[in-house]
Amino acid sequence: MSIIKKIPHIVLHITQTLENAGFEAYLVGGCVRDLLYDQKPKDWDITTNAHPEKIQKLFPHTFYENTYGTVAVVNDDVSDETLKIVEVTPYRIEGGYTDNRHPETVTFAENLNDDLQRRDFTINAMALDIRGNIRDPYHGQDDIKNKTIRTVGKPTDRFSEDALRMLRAIRFCAELDFVMEKNTEEAILNNSQLLEKISKERIRDEFIKILMSDKPKRGLEIAHKVGILRFISLELEKGIGIDQGGIHTYDVWEHLLRSLQHTADRGWPLEIRLAALFHDIGKPVTRKKGETKWTFYGHEVVGARMTQKILTDLKFPKKISEKVTKLVRWHMFFADTETLTHSAVRRIVTRVGKENIWSLMDVRAADRIGTGRPKENPYRLRKYHAMIDEVLRDPISVGMLKVDGRKIMEMTGEKPGPKIGFILRILLEEVLENPTLNTAEYLNTRAKELQQLNEKELLDLDKKAKDKAAQEEQKEIGNIHKKHFIR
Length: 487
Ligand code: ATP
Ligand code: MG
Description:
- By secondary structure, the chain is an alpha+beta fold.
- It is 52% helix and 8% strand.
- The chain folds into four domains: 3-146, Beta Polymerase, domain 2 (2-Layer Sandwich), CATH 3.30.460.10; 151-232, Hydrophobic Seed Protein; 244-393, Hypothetical protein af1432; 398-478, no CATH class.
- The chain has 22 helices and 13 strands.
- Helix 20 (418-433) packs across helix 21 and helix 20 packs across helix 22.
- The longest helix is centred in the last third of the chain and has 29 residues, at 455-483.
- It starts with 8 loop residues before the first helix and ends with a helix.
- The structure holds adenosine-5'-triphosphate and magnesium ion (MG).
């Protein structure tokens, strides 16, 4: 299929409109790379020789995105949910990099080649017009074929202009499964310290993209190899060569990377990927020689603290760092498999939080795979899931009723005593039999009637009610077991 057919209508329309008005206009950057590599582009960028105010005149709804002349064109087709805005940026030249972060000056350029020259890598420095012509002065297409990340121009110059590009290089290796060209790689090795100048937020965003790529393990291995992993976390590398013994085939570093890779293979979300990566981060500092093997007592407690610090330093939102820290803190819980009781499961659900319990199970699965052991025995896994479901559900109890003991005493003048308990249980039985009866109105009236009965009559009804509640409880648990295919 022609690559033009893969371009959304609105993007073609904007490009065509610019051309019709006598300007040049091209798709550029990541979207061209992705189209040529047969991947789905994440966003669509257009570059043009039209200046911002000329761009704005051509489209009914636009606004400025940043100070670099980028105009956001709003898609007026409200039925198009996928693409709300398209960025149109005038050709630019950037100059005078002095702080290893951003240019001193940005000027508009006359021709496309000047704009392509400022871009970081050859695969990101291609432009495509709406007739399918590709402008590729740096042979990005060859590098796509050879799966190579190569800077436009001298790598040392380009990395000292903007040090973040070193991390971007690694991110593209992880996202595209590419390798770094030799000079590019060497330049990173020699200039890694420049990353000190880059804000934690920008580092975090690239780190997230590495984690969310298909090959996060590879990404972090390359980051280590070229000496920039320390800008993400000093602690990860300390796991290298930390043998664990026991069921573990790998050192801590390899184990963490394998756990992380499993979360990517399963397409799991960021928090779970982070927790898998950091779950044993406390091992190197807690390792002690036991009688027969290494011990790591308290590594999950120490590790949780370390994780919190790493994520806070990288300016992760509090919500994310709290969740990940909890997952690391409690990841050891399920280690003891055969003897797990409901009350133990209830405890862990309370500690990690109902909303996090299934994530914890995912971290556990990743941990296990990262150890080199096969997947959890499916029956046992289903049993865990059933136990969690059982403790998560609201138990059948008089607490479900739309009336309580105090209200009944108020209404009837009855003193505290066993009779109130009988009445509540009898009401519960009736509600279990017919849930529509669970209204304050009905229960109030019925409670008054029951209060008139003598002890003997109530006792008989109460016995029936208890049996009914026990039966219902059994049935609910049976349903959960059926759902998980366990006995
Ligand atoms: P993604 O798929 O993540 O969107 P992308 O290549 O589109 O990847 P963006 O950050 O969206 O990356 O940037 C768009 C384009 O701008 C890049 O393809 C590249 O040409 C250029 N670019 C972005 N950041 C830099 C940078 N730090 N230095 C040089 N060029 C850059
Ligand atoms: Mg992009």
